[in-house]
Amino acid sequence: MENKKLSAAPLKSVLLYAKPYIAYLVLGLVFAVISVSLTLYAPILTGRGIDLIIEKGRVDFDALSPILIKLGIIAGIVALTQWLMSLCTNKVTYLTIRDIRNDAFKRLEHLPLRYIDSNPHGDILSRMISDMEQISDGLIMGFAQLFTGLVTIIGTLGFMLSVNVKITLIVVVITPLSLFVARFISKNTFLLFKDRSVTRGELTSVVEEMTGEQKTVAAFCHEQDAYDSFAEINERLRKISARAIFFSSLTNPSTRFINGLVYSFVGIFGAVSVISGSGFTVGQLSCFLTYANQYTKPFNEISGVITELQSAIACAKRVFELIDEPEEISDKDNAVLDDCKGNVKISDVSFSYTPDIPLIDDLNLDVKQGQRIAIVGPTGCGKTTIINLLMRFYDVTEGCVSVEGKDIRELTRNSLRSHYGMVLQETWLKSGTIYENIAYSKPDATREEVIAAAKAAHADSFIRRLPEGYDTVISDDGSNISAGQKQLLCIARVMLMVPPMLILDEATSSIDTMTEIRIQRAFAKLIKGRTSFIVAHRLSTIVESDCILVMDKGHIIEQGTHEQLLAKKGFYYELYMSQFCND
What predicted TM-score, i.e. pTM, was given to this entire model? Predict the structure, then answer.
């Protein structure tokens, strides 16, 4: 759904999402009209019944029986129509929330990596789950109260006017005061509910971080610090929630007080009218009191509605802020990279994650097909950043990165990335079987191809020792297999797709020495004839590279083969000798 600044008017934006399901809204309104109309007709029958039993010995049972039967039928129809109305409003609500959640997730998939990196993952989760549920609760209550409330107010006014105009005017004049009270309170509670949603996002972030890194927390004995951090945010959430609920809850007693006055005035004036012999009967008074109560009921319930709606609007604002986030620069239509051989050129590239902190400046590199390029340097020098630029996870600030002579910004991201095979130091697995995780790079691969890739990555032996072999289910964090085994699966994934270009970022960092030697041999076969970029800290793994780029502070300070760089006795020589001496 294309809308500008949905977060500026969150309630209006939610209603726009509900617009396609207006048929259900109309049906809900129809059932509400039927339900309320019959509910309002019931007091008339009750009043007639009371007039038939007004005195001892003067009970007209013959006339009373049909009234009781009608009341029973009305009760059954009202129950059915209320159920059908709830069905319609729930349908609208859940379809609307489904569409909002789909759009939010779709936008999340197309947001630049900069947004994901700069926002706590727990806060994003909170927007996608908790805030969505709060919107849902607000919509369910809002739609239900809207339908029944409007019809009840209009219907009761009509019935009361038909019974007694003067007493009706008393009800109409006093009751709307509760609306002004509710509106005043709601204006002052919105910010509190917004703060509550933000704080809840903080809490989700802490929980997500602590559970995801529990081993690290335990290893460094930070359990108490983690608990203190959680407790501090949890206490803030308690205080903000208590204030928000307290102030929003003032609406209920305020409106009930005003509506109690209405009921009292109706009772007093009605009783006076009955005693004065104006033709206003006890049964009509009973009927009118019921109508007065029915009329004020929507106002009595308005506090609960406002509490939910204010919370829902605050949550909707956060969700629509996510949907409003600008997407990545759109791909150009049909700008597909075909016949990629692996020629990559980086020309005068500058880049920084934040404008005030420069990282890469005036970087130039010309890589020919089949070359093996190693990138080394101290932590933070820009090695992984080059990978991000090659894969177009980030776009360059200045300059150009081209593949086969085409600026990668002119190519679709999918066509560019489909020509790269990547194994990172930080492994990633999804919830599913071993087979599904390896086949992630090539969904149409046969089982034989997957097994062959696993054998090439030296993962087949440990896979077969698992309870279900290739059908063993692993969790998304791979907690039921070791770090080295996770990395072997990621390597097998790349072995399966056999791309023209490879990116290996510390691809064997978690693997034992003997297995690493075997995998290096497998990689040697795999990268033969293919352009490969290898980021490494262990310099012994890159001595056979065609070209080694030595980086420092975003610049290539040395370039050449292993032997050439050692002969220079410069920065690379010091790095290599420091590792050799330590070994």
Answer: 0.65
- CATH number of the domain enclosing 49: 1.20.1560.10
Q: What is each CA distance from 331 to 308, 328, 506, in whole angstroms?
A: 41, 9, 30
Neighbours of 258 (CB within 10 A): 20
Structure tokens at 249: 């809850």
Span 291-313, pLDDT tens digits = 777 777 776 666 567 667 777 88
> For residue 520, what are the contacts with CB-CB under 8 A and spacing of at least 6?
508, 541
Verify that 313 and 349 share a domain, yes or no. Answer: no
Residues 113 and 224 in one domain: yes
Cβ atoms of 186 and 306 within 8 Å: the answer is: yes
Examine residue 335 and state whether it is found in any structural domain, yes or no.
Answer: no
Same domain for 138 and 103: yes
**Residues 513 and 454 sit within 8 Å (Cβ to Cβ):** no
Report the C-alpha gap between 240 and 200 in whole angstroms. 10
Cα 116 from chain centroid?
A: 12
Q: List b or e across 113-124, with b for residues whose CB sees 16 or more CB atoms inside 10 angstroms.
A: eebeeebeebbb
Domains in the chain: how many in total? 2
157 or 87, which is more confident? 87
User: What is the residue range of 502's domain?
Assistant: 344-582
Residue 95 makes CB contacts below 8 A (sequence gap 6+) with: 20, 21, 24
Rounded-to-10 torsion of CA 447, 453, 456, 461: -50
Q: Which pair of tokens denotes residue 477?
A: 């964090």
**Based on the domain organization, do 319 and 350 belong to the same domain?**
no
Distance (Å, whole) CA 386 – CA 561:
20
Q: Categorize the per-residue pLDDT at 7 as very low, low, confident or very high, splitting at 50, 70 and 90.
A: low
| 357 in the same domain as 308 | no
Residue 566 corresponds to which tokens in the numbers above? 């050692």
Non-local (6+) Cβ contacts of 300 within 8 A are: 178, 252, 255, 256, 259
Residue 336 lies in a domain: no
